């Protein structure tokens, strides 16, 4: 999701505007997934389970991909699109917030820095080095979506569909590398794409730990209102 107008680069974290954009992103992602026939034909419960599993992991990668499309792939540039009007510069030493509880935010900064550093090392730098194509982004999305081994709540029908689609995806990425890119030994690149997915999972794990620590010790309230988040119908 590229911005339709010039963005403002800032070091000010705006929790509510970020949540607003995430709500838009989630609705856009849900609509995109519904264009996939195999996904659309699943039961509502299966769709929701797959969607919930996919959205956060893919969001990290999508934000960096869109940021590279917008700002370029310089390894010295740590600007990441925050929403559709602003970007956040991870290269800046100081971070601020427009939240009224700024004192608590300052206490939470070490937690933010931990997330930032992991994002840069596991997502930003690898993606800039790889120069991922649009086709590979689609591959990443569907690889996240249809990798279901750890999702024990899915129906047997959904698991069978996932296995079938995964085989199809493997064939399509093989054809893409061999016929379009003329890359014969693509295994190392494919491994790096999978490492990106694992990296995004690690970032999400760090975020979850951060939110729990913040709640337990009353450091900073990361919560946003439910209206920011969309659902699949």
Automatic annotation (TrEMBL):
One matching Pfam family: Hormone_recep
TM spans (from-to): none
Domain (NR LBD): residue spans on this chain: 1-233
InterPro entries from the UniProt entry: C.elegans_Orphan_NR, NHR-like_dom_sf, Nucl_hrmn_rcpt_lig-bd
Keyword terms of this UniProt record: Receptor, Transcription, Transcription regulation
Domain of life: Eukaryota
Annotated SUPFAM superfamilies: Nuclear receptor ligand-binding domain (SSF48508)
Keyword flag Transcription: yes
Keyword Transcription regulation recorded: yes
The name this protein goes by in its record: NR LBD domain-containing protein
């Amino acid at each position: 999701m590229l911005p339709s107008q010039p963005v403002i680069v800032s070091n000010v974290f705006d929790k509510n505007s970020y949540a607003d954009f995430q709500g838009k992103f989630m609705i856009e992602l849900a609509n995109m997934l519904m264009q996939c026939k195999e996904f659309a034909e699943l039961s509502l419960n299966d769709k929701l389970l797959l969607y919930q599993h996919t959205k956060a992991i893919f969001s990290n990668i999508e934000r960096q991909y869109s940021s590279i499309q917008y700002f370029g792939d310089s390894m010295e540039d740590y600007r990441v699109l925050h929403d559709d009007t602003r970007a956040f510069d991870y290269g800046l030493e100081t971070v601020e917030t427009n939240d009224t509880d700024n004192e608590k935010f300052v206490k939470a900064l070490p937690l933010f820095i931990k997330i930032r550093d992991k994002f840069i090392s596991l997502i930003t730098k690898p993606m800039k080095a790889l120069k991922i194509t649009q086709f590979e982004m689609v591959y990443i999305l569907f690889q996240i979506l249809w990798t279901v081994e750890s999702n024990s709540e899915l129906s047997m029908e959904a698991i069978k569909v996932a296995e079938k689609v995964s085989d199809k995806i493997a064939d399509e990425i093989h054809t893409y590398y061999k016929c379009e890119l003329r890359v014969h030994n693509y295994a190392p690149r494919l491994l790096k794409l999978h490492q990106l997915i694992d990296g995004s999972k690690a970032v999400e794990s760090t975020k979850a730990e951060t939110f729990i620590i913040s709640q337990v010790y009353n450091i900073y309230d990361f919560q946003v209102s439910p209206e920011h988040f969309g659902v699949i119908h």
